[in-house]
């Protein structure tokens, strides 16, 4: 099953030396300058051709499900990402020297040829299906395309396999499998798109997992991050993009993957369990500490500070095993694969819940999928697909340590007593008029059944039993919807019309840590002035450049940067702001700092009871924007893991909490932005 493995240079004890970190992405080979120049000119010509393109008449621009004509402007916007993602891929490979074989320059040229073909189709009035090269459904097709990400406006690639038969004459909803690829340090956008397309034959990483009559989505995941952070959002955005264009059966979507893709699958299975009819992870890793001990020979429980270990919970899976009661699971491991440890850890966690995990094991098999195991996996997945339905579950069990993940079926946690302490919900409809809820570490909770989803009686009050109390809930509505909002004060629960906490509180989408701000639309905001401290000034210059450069290299993003004086209310309303500078150099920091729980002047930087001299120190933190409270401001940090952590995906966890005071006199390292003088989490009311 070599076709399921993406080769990598990675991992092992040789990558445990923080002072000898090899570059990722690795440098490519030298391509003839004339070839590079030709590719660059073609990219420019394609962009110019697209800008000048005038779409006349009735251009479809739509999909199989909504082929109605659009205006020229709407049609162009609908199709733009599917065209311009191709030259962007080539431009990224040129900019970061990411050609690793001479054939990749040929792949780049073919991708540009495909972009030119698509422009010709649009010029001729073609719709989305024509641009993508599908129409009659006569054969299975592998399509490559792109969507525009809300995070940074960049065009991100995806691939989707269209089953034979799907076409304008057959638009019945199909099952969709999301397939997470393995680690590939050399997998640039060019390599991903070319390998996934028909331009270089029939090879693609999931070829052996393409069930009949099934759409298979291959998200890129923003390169090599195990589908975490912006890579996680990439999966959700790519799926939404494909669902808007192809006839996907929303009740029959699964998540699957192998190696690094298996790790991604574990993550999506536990955090979004109510979205899938099944999950099929293979190998990979499912938690941080034991995997790094087993795979890297690295005892991180002894070397990592406690606050970083706390933050492992963002992506560790065994503590969330109870969420798999909402998602059927078929796990796979090779019998002699070191990455079998991932499924073993989950099997132990599920057994503690009296669940016997289905664990298909390839006999005498290392890091690959055994042919007979593949048959058994497909048999089970096909069976699960056939019985999938959208019935409302009468019992929901849900665990989460953070409001980043706050919803499961009809349960929506809106407030925690304490972040990074596990919250648990066990809610069940015990009679047609009664819901019983057990809730730990929860202060605000919504029970919400959308129209047609309430499975109980068709009229009257619904009783809620929670915390030893019985509350008379709202009436069932005429469209069979029902919802209630519950709030706890000390040990007393009450029904409320809407949540209106007194003062600022952590809530979904506004709960930290620092990395959370780079999972939605954000802007880098650079200082227009200079710090009076030359050490701090140099660090600000170096770290702002580092944050933007690494965003491009490791999350394959576009840089949206403005100066502090350019930020207007509209920018604040629609973006998180990543502010670099100090109280002297950045006018926006100076404006906002008195409205945040930090003191920063010529003598001291202080957060809570912790203070350091201003000289040679900076503050990094995340906080709700005081003048746009639905958005964050972040001081002096991009995403918080660094070069050392690129070497193994399990290391890619948050390395800073909500705030940090940093001694920058020695500069940054491959692991941290400086010496951490003090760090901490804000409490549930955003106080230190």
Structural descriptors:
single chain; 688 residues; alpha/beta; globular; disordered N terminus
Mean pLDDT: 93
> How many DSSP-defined strands?
28
Sketch the major β-sheet.
Answer: 7 strands, mixed
Radius of gyration: 26 Å
* Strand order within the widest beta sheet: 20-19-21-26-25-27-28
Number of helical regions: 15
What's the shape?
A: globular
Structure description:
It is a single chain. By secondary structure, this protein is α/β, with parallel strands linked by helices. The chain is 27% helix and 24% strand. It is built from 15 helices and 28 strands. The strands form 6 sheets. The protein has a 7-stranded mixed β-sheet. The chain has a 6-stranded mixed β-sheet with strand order 1-2-4-3-5-6, with helices on both faces. α5 (189-196) links the parallel β3 (174-180) and β4 (214-219). α1 (33-52) packs antiparallel against α2 (72-95), α2 runs antiparallel to α3 (102-123) and α3 (102-123) packs across α5 (189-196). The longest helix is centred in the first third of the chain and has 24 residues, at 72-95. The radius of gyration is 26 Å and the shape is globular. Residues 1-9, 55-60 and 199-207 have low confidence and may be disordered.
Short synopsis of the structure:
By secondary structure, this protein is α/β, with parallel strands linked by helices.
Task: Please give the structural blueprint.
Elements: H1 33-52, H2 72-95, H3 102-123, H4 128-132, E1 141-148, E2 155-162, E3 174-180, H5 189-196, E4 214-219, H6 230-243, E5 248-258, H7 260-271, E6 278-282, H8 289-296, H9 300-303, H10 306-311, E7 331-334, H11 340-351, E8 359-362, H12 371-387, E9 395-400, E10 407-408, E11 411-416, E12 423-431, E13 434-440, E14 442-449, E15 461-466, E16 469-475, E17 482-489, E18 492-496, E19 522-526, H13 534-555, E20 561-563, H14 569-574, E21 576-579, H15 587-592, E22 599-600, E23 604-607, E24 610-613, E25 617-625, E26 628-635, E27 659-663, E28 675-680
Parallel strand pairs: 3-4, 3-5, 5-6, 7-8, 13-15, 19-20, 19-21, 21-26
Antiparallel strand pairs: 1-2, 2-4, 9-12, 10-11, 11-14, 12-13, 14-17, 15-16, 17-18, 22-23, 23-24, 25-26, 25-27, 27-28
Helix pairs in contact: 1-2, 1-3, 2-3, 3-5
């Amino acid at each position: 099953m070599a076709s399921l493995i993406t080769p990598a240079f990675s991992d092992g004890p040789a990558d445990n030396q923080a002072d000898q970190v090899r570059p990722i992405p690795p440098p490519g080979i030298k391509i003839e300058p004339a070839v590079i120049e030709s590719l660059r000119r073609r990219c420019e010509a394609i962009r110019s051709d697209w800008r000048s393109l005038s779409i006349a008449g009735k251009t479809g621009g739509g999909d199989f499900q909504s082929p109605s004509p659009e205006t020229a402007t709407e049609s162009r916007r609908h199709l733009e990402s599917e065209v311009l993602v191709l030259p962007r891929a080539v431009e990224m490979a040129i900019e970061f020297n990411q050609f690793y074989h001479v054939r990749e320059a040929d792949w780049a040229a073919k991708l540009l040829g495909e972009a030119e073909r698509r422009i010709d189709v649009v010029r001729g009035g073609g719709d989305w299906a024509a641009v993508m090269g599908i129409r009659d459904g006569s054969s299975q097709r592998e399509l490559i395309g792109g969507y525009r990400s809300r995070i940074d406006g960049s065009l991100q690639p995806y691939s989707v396999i269209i089953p034979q038969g799907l076409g304008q004459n057959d638009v019945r909803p199909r099952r969709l499998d999301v397939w997470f690829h393995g680690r590939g340090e050399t997998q640039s956008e060019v390599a991903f798109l070319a390998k996934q397309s028909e331009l270089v034959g029939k090879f693609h990483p999931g070829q052996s997992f393409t069930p009949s009559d099934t759409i298979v989505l291959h998200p890129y995941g923003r390169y090599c991050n195990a589908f975490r952070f912006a890579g996680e959002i990439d999966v959700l955005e790519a799926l939404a993009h494909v669902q808007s264009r192809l006839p996907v059966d929303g009740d029959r979507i699964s998540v699957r993957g192998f190696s690094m893709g298996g790790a991604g699958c574990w993550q999506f299975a536990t955090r979004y369990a109510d979205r899938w009819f099944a999950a099929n992870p293979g190998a990979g890793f499912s938690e941080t500490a034991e995997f790094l001990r087993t795979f890297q020979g690295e005892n991180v429980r002894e070397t990592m500070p406690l606050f970083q270990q706390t933050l492992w919970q963002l992506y560790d899976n065994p503590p969330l095993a109870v969420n798999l009661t909402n998602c059927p699971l078929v796990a796979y491991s090779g019998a002699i694969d070191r990455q079998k440890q991932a499924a073993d850890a989950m099997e132990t966690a599920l057994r503690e819940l009296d669940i016997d995990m289905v664990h298909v094991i390839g006999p005498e098999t290392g890091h690959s999928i055994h042919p007979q195991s593949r048959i058994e996996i497909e048999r089970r997945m096909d069976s699960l697909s056939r019985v999938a339905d959208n019935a409302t579950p009468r019992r929901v069990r849900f665990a989460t340590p953070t409001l980043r993940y706050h919803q499961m079926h009809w349960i929506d946690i809106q407030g925690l007593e304490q972040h990074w302490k596990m919250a648990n919900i066990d809610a069940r409809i015990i009679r047609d008029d009664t819901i019983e809820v057990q809730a730990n570490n929860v202060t605000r909770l919504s029970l919400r059944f959308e129209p047609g989803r309430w499975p109980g009686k068709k009229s009257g009050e619904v009783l809620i039993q929670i915390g030893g109390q019985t509350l008379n809930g709202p009436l069932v509505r005429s469209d069979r919807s029902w919802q209630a909002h519950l709030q706890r004060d000390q040990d007393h629960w009450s029904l409320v019309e809407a949540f209106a906490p007194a003062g600022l509180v952590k809530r979904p989408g506004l709960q930290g840590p620092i990395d959370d701000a780079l999972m939605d639309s954000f802007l880098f905001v650079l200082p227009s002035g200079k710090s009076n401290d030359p050490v701090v000034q140099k660090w600000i210059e170096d770290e702002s450049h580092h944050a933007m450069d690494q965003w491009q290299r490791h999350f394959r993003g576009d840089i949206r940067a403005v100066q502090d004086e350019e930020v207007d209310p509209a920018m604040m309303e629609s973006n998180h702001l990543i502010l670099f500078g100090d109280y002297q150099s950045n006018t926006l920091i100076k404006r906002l700092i008195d409205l945040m729980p930090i003191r920063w002047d010529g003598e001291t930087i202080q957060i809570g009871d912790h203070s350091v001299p201003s000289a040679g120190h900076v503050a990094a933190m995340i906080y709700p924007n005081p003048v746009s409270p639905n958005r964050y401001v972040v001081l002096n940090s991009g995403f918080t893991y660094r070069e050392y952590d690129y070497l193994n995906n399990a290391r890619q966890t948050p390395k800073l909490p909500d705030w940090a005071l940093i001694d920058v006199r020695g500069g940054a390292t491959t692991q941290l932005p400086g010496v951490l003088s003090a760090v901490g989490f804000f409490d549930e009311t955003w106080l230190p």
